[in-house]
Write a structure and sequence with these properties.
The complex is a heterotrimer. Chain A is mainly alpha-helical. Chain A has 17 helices and no strands. The two termini of chain A are about 30 Å apart. Chain B is an alpha+beta fold. Chain B folds into two domains: about 70 residues, Alpha-Beta Plaits, CATH 3.30.70; about 60 residues, no CATH class. Chain B contains four helices and four strands. In chain B, strands 2-3-1-4 form a four-stranded antiparallel β-sheet, with helices on one face.
Chain lengths: ~450, ~170, ~230
């Protein structure tokens, strides 16, 4: 039985957590090259789209939003990993969060950066995206602040800023320790990033106060961000979009998919960086229980939404409901229910099945299921507009699939670079404080 | 003149601080270096902070500024849309909220940089001890004549190593 | 009587034969791009006015209802507040105006339109010869990435207003007609000033047979459909 990580000598902890930074294995290079190739394919697809026009996608009247918006909501949802784990668990001072916080915060920052690209990628004239920014111009025009898309912009800018700062603050002490690293360019990088941190009590107090404040703020922002993204749909009068439940529904779904993403990342890190002593079955059990809880919450919201529509029997909404549950999009809907609820419930609800491997499998199912959920929300409504004569369908093309795949590759690459530059577990937070005297 | 003492236990460091402060050292003269945050009991070495106040002020200020700007911008070039008013507090409410949060974030970070001393011009002459993992280094700034007294106070409190350094 | 106009339209569904002359006229007048068969199969045609067909019954007792659907120029247009760059707005004459060179292509307006009357330029527009020589110089040719829709032939309204201003008078009823109204062989479409209570369109709007599409949404559309409601 391996000793609890807190009881390991500090030298050993430092070695274990700093070791991945100094070695580049062949597996790492291979993974980076693969990610790069997929990412390049996505970029080529986007360049083609910019050149030829949005017609290269599968979009058509009336389905004007497709894969790109699904991806957008998906990635912003994934970004809620860091917030829940880091902020809430920090505020409640749960000890088991310590090896997990930086990995989670990194997911948030990168998922936001990727998700934030999609409002640009999906534009018909993407090179003019900056017109949404309020800047003085010769036409004396301002953007329309009444539009939910502008609310999106402010929310995401705020969240990105907050997440980067929230990731950076606890990184400072670790980076200060790494400033003695042997590679000259790295020494320069770490010294610059550490801002001359000396570890004095003034600095520590300021840091802890700032982190506590940031945890509260970032939590408030995270709830609002996905609510605002949900309101892109809820503010429209389209059938089955114009629902009051969308705000909380999307936030719960985001936290759900965020935890799942975190579980997958943790599983990979544990295997690849040999962090078995630090990311213990205890962590996976706790996160697994949270995932199960969110799965039940998700089911509750999904049922609330669909049951009320079905009972209300309003013709325009029933057209969408039928498309979702019985007709064209039914396979996606029911697969989503199985992936989001049935499999996690079995694998995480039965204690004997709640192993690390099974938890990871459940997490993968949830990530796929939540992507399908976004798809099932966006497309069936648009395909069944209020005037039935305009109803149509949607099928993605290689361009949309390539760009979607490229975002996963980009996430992997950003994460791999991050894990090579900075310790993925916060060393200073991990070491327990010297015991308090009563 | 700086006196640096190394301690392995928090209580001994606290005792040393109390003695030094009784001997006339102020909180500004004292610094504690460690590889992780050390919590002393209240009254030993308190660092009062204005961070919450700054954060809230920054939040409110930026939120009001952003809302005011939007009110002005929507009236600057009037565009009628959908029978809706030019400026509506509730429609803009989301942006007000987000900009309030952004104000809090930026104010918190900026004040952190200031209060921690990271962004302030440093006293380059003050020596920074290399701290071993698990130990706490206490550094006190005093006049040359007082240094022996300070070093003795630290020894008595249980320091494992004391050194005196010129700045 | 107020100075400004408030343009509206009345379409008599009991007269409409579904011939789609209005569709062709609109294409010719407004430089609408011509689609290819492959793109049409993907639903990428742009008809600013389209004729929706609703079938009732089984053969041989089939009844077909033809409904020409065009931009309703709603007074409470849901498409207008959601555009982040003000590319669509309501002008003082009640028209829902689309500003092509401001549109960045977020598609929100099209998603929010309950009538699905907004059309997107998926590619650079093309016209097979000799249609490319037939462009109307009064109307812009839109580039790819821009949303467009029926404008009530605003270029004709503008020209008529300029002519009337030259003569120092107000536009009279029937002075200006969009291309679709002009071309309808069954004379099912009427266009005019709703602010003038004696204009043909105002009188038809007050008719017992007048209804509006999706009125319950509160969009206040300005196209009145006249039909015998059973």
């Amino acid at each position: 039985m391996a000793p609890a990580p807190e009881l390991l000598p500090y030298q050993r902890i430092r070695e274990d957590l700093f070791r991945p930074l100094s070695r580049v294995s062949r597996r790492y290079v291979l993974a980076t090259v693969c990610a790069f190739v997929v990412g390049a394919a996505g970029l080529a697809a986007w360049a083609y789209q910019l050149r030829r026009g949005m017609g290269v996608t599968g979009l058509q009247r009336p389905v004007f939003w497709g894969f790109y918006i699904v991806d957008f909501v998906f990635w912003i949802g994934i970004s809620h990993a860091g917030t829940l784990i880091s902020a809430i668990l920090r505020l409640t001072d749960a000890a088991w969060r310590k090896p997990v916080t930086r990995a989670a915060e990194a997911i948030t920052v990168f998922a936001l950066m990727i998700g934030g690209m999609f409002p640009i990628i999906h534009l018909g004239r993407a090179w003019l995206f900056f017109w949404l920014l309020p800047y003085p111009n010769s036409r004396l025009l301002w953007p329309n602040f009444r539009s939910p898309l502008l609310w999106d912009l402010t929310a995401i800018v705020t969240y990105v800023t907050g997440s980067i700062i929230y990731l950076y603050l606890p990184l400072i002490p670790d980076v200060a320790q790494l400033a003695e690293h042997n590679t000259p360019w790295r020494r320069k990088l770490y010294r610059a990033l550490s801002l001359g941190w000396t570890g004095s009590d003034r600095e520590w107090h300021a840091l802890e106060r700032a982190m506590k404040l940031m945890a509260c703020i970032i939590l408030a922002v995270a709830v609002s961000v996905h609510t605002v993204v949900a309101w892109d749909f809820a503010m429209a009068v389209a059938p089955m979009w114009h629902s009051t439940i969308f705000g909380p529904y999307f936030v719960a779904g985001a936290i759900f998919s965020g935890i799942a993403a975190l579980l997958i990342v943790m599983s990979l890190l544990r295997k690849v960086l040999h962090l078995e002593t630090y990311l213990t079955p205890h962590h996976f059990r706790n996160l697994g229980k949270l995932l199960l809880l969110m799965s039940l919450l998700w089911l509750y919201f999904t049922m609330s939404e669909n049951l009320t529509v079905w009972y209300g029997n309003e013709p325009k909404e029933m057209a969408v409901f039928g498309a979702r549950t019985r007709a064209q999009y039914a396979p996606y809907f029911w697969i989503m229910v199985v992936l989001n609820f049935v499999i996690p419930f079995v694998l995480l609800g039965i204690r004997r099945l709640r192993t690390i491997a099974n938890t990871t499998i459940a997490a993968v199912c949830v990530v796929v299921g939540m992507w399908l959920e976004r798809f099932v929300i966006v497309v069936p409504t648009l395909a069944n507009p209020r005037l039935p004569a305009a109803a149509s369908s949607y099928a993605p093309t290689w361009v949309e699939i390539a760009i979607t795949a490229a975002t996963f590759a980009a996430m992997a690459m950003l994460y791999m670079i991050f894990a090579k530059l900075f310790p993925i577990i916060a060393v200073w937070e991990f070491k327990p404080h010297p015991p308090e005297d009563e | 003149m700086y006196v640096i003492g190394e301690f392995h236990e928090k209580e001994r460091a606290a005792a040393a601080i109390r003695t030094l402060r009784a001997g006339g050292a102020t909180a500004a003269d004292l610094d504690v270096f460690s590889e992780e945050p050390v919590e002393f009991p209240r009254g030993v070495l308190d660092r009062p902070s204005r961070m919450s106040l700054i954060s809230v002020s920054g939040a409110i200020a930026f939120g009001l500024l952003a809302t005011g700007f939007i009110y002005w911008a929507q009236h600057d070039y009037r565009v009628a849309t959908g029978g809706m008013p030019l400026f509506s507090f509730w429609a803009t409410g989301v942006i007000t909220y987000e900009m309030t949060m952004l104000g809090a974030i930026v104010a918190t970070f900026a004040w952190f940089l200031w209060e921690s001393g990271l962004a302030r011009p440093r006293d380059r002459s003050a020596p920074v001890p290399m701290v071993d993992p698990g130990s706490i280094c206490l550094r006190v700034r005093c006049r040359a004549g007082q240094s022996a007294h300070a070093a003795e106070a630290m020894q008595r409190a249980g320091a494992t190593g004391v050194e005196r350094r010129e700045s | 009587m107020s100075i400004t106009y408030r343009w509206g339209m009345a379409i008599d569904l009991d007269r409409c034969t579904g011939c789609e002359a209005c569709v062709v006229a609109c294409h010719a007048e407004n430089n609408l791009p011509v689609s290819t068969p492959e793109q049409a199969a993907k639903g990428r045609t742009a008809h600013w006015i389209r004729v929706d067909r609703y079938y009732e019954g089984e053969f041989p007792d089939v009844k077909v209802k033809y409904m020409p659907v065009l931009c309703q120029h709603c007074d409470n247009a849901p498409c207008e507040p959601v555009c982040p760059v003000h590319a669509t707005y309501h002008n003082p004459e009640g028209l829902n105006v689309q500003v092509y060179n401001r549109c960045v292509g977020t598609f929100y307006c099209a998603n929010n339109c309950p009538y699905t009357v907004r059309y997107f330029n998926w590619f650079e527009p093309e016209w097979p010869a000799p249609l490319d020589l037939q462009h109307n110089p009064d109307v812009a040719v839109r580039m790819t990435g821009v949303m467009e829709k029926c404008t009530f032939c605003i270029q004709r309204i503008k020209r008529a207003k300029e002519g009337a201003a030259r003569d120092g008078r107000r536009l009279a009823d029937g002075d200006v007609n969009p291309a679709c109204v002009q071309s309808c062989p069954a004379e099912a479409m009427v266009f005019g000033d709703l602010n003038d209570p004696e204009s043909r369109v105002s009188r038809l709007a007050r008719n017992g047979r007048a209804t509006r599409l999706l009125e319950e949404l509160g969009t206040k559309p300005k196209v009145f459909y006249l039909q015998k409601v059973k």
